[in-house]
Specification:
Largest sheet of chain B: 6 strands, mixed
Order of helices and strands of chain B: EEEEEEEEEEE
Number of helices of chain B: 0
Helix content of chain B: under 10%
Number of strands of chain B: 11
Shape of chain A: globular
Structural class of chain A: mainly beta
Strand content of chain A: over 45%
Structural class of chain B: mainly beta
Radius of gyration of chain A: 13 Å
Oligomer: heterodimer
Order of helices and strands of chain A: EEEEEEEEEEE
Shape of chain B: globular
Distance between the termini of chain A: 35 Å
Chain lengths: 114, 112
């Protein structure tokens, strides 16, 4: 069953704690992305990676960190430096531009920090 | 700055009517224009996409119209159904190795 999986679906943390969100894909996609979505808001790019061991900051990278040690996996860490971490986090993946432009999203993780 | 401007922010359509969502862009280097559909609590799903060498693409009740000279593209949903009620996002990909640029979304409500 191919696709993008994000776990867990819901995550609760206390303020001041770092938390890592999982994203795995078995689509053999080269590029992976993390977006943040707030209620009634659009999709804001946090980080993206086009190849293993390389990643780029998106529009709102402050307070977040990522790693890309395997092609299939792109975990996102929300650090205590992120001022408003409560949001819906979406992972996505695609082939590298030039082959196919189609980008697919995972089901999302809703993070609540209190 | 690369932007895609989407309108309206919200839309209410009667069942059976036509829903129209518009997007405009300024960067002529965009070379791929997808639309995504998102239901509450779910990830966006790729709905339909078009490239700038085509003026229209139709898939079932969903049609993208693309006007290259005006730098505008729109999504038309024919015979809108309550099950189409969702948030729709337009996007554009700059040529080269950069991510999609998204519009801010349109919340569509189809009422019976």
């Amino acid at each position: 069953d191919g696709g993008i999986t994000q776990s867990p679906k819901y995550l609760f943390r206390k303020e001041g704690q770092n938390v890592t969100l999982s994203c795995e894909q078995n689509l053999n996609h080269d590029a992976m992305y993390w977006y943040r979505q707030d209620p009634g808001q659009g999709l804001r790019l946090i980080y993206y990676s086009q190849i293993v061991n390389d990643f780029q900051k998106g529009d709102i990278a402050e307070g977040y960190s990522v790693s890309r040690e395997k092609k299939e996996s792109f975990p996102l860490t929300v650090t205590s430096a992120q001022k408003n971490p409560t949001a819906f986090y979406l992972c996505a993946s695609s082939y590298s531009p030039g082959t196919s432009h189609e980008q697919y999203f995972g089901p999302g993780t809703r993070l609540t920090v209190t | 700055q690369q932007q895609v401007k989407q309108s309206p922010q919200s839309l209410i359509v009667q069942k059976g009517g036509i829903s129209i969502i518009n997007c405009a862009y300024e960067n002529t280097a965009f070379d791929y224009f997808p639309w995504y559909q998102q239901f509450p609590g779910k990830g966006p799903a790729l709905l339909i996409a078009i490239r700038p060498d085509v003026s229209e693409k139709k898939e079932g009740r969903f049609t993208i119209s693309f006007n290259k000279s005006a730098k505008q593209f729109s999504l038309h949903i024919m015979d809108s159904q309550p099950g189409d009620s969702a948030t729709y996002f337009c996007a554009a990909r700059p040529s080269g190795n950069t991510p999609l640029v998204f519009g801010k979304g349109t919340r569509l409500s189809v009422i019976a």
